């Protein structure tokens, strides 16, 4: 019993455990963020699943599950970095077949300035 007279109950069901939000910092290194999330936003607003990432210095080669190849620079202010942080992507690629749990996990992830993991 709490002081206010209301009993506190913990709900440990699997549904609430999956709804927990992850917190990442907004200004983490871009390649670390991509390696962690394993999603790539294309210019059309589609989210692609990443099959492999090959990082060479400040440049990375990204190959998606639909066999598209991207050469990207390590920039925190790039279009892709902003789109991932702000979740501006419209839909998921049908060829990549991104599982729904991964999209739900991405949408529940919070990117904050002063709170969260540095990856």
From TrEMBL:
Top class in the EC scheme: ligase
GO molecular function: pyrrolysyl-tRNA synthetase activity
Recorded superkingdom: Bacteria
Keywords: Aminoacyl-tRNA synthetase, Ligase
EC number: 6.1.1.26
NCBIfam families to which the protein is assigned, alphabetical: PylS_Nterm (TIGR03912)
Name this protein carries in UniProt: Pyrrolysyl-tRNA synthetase
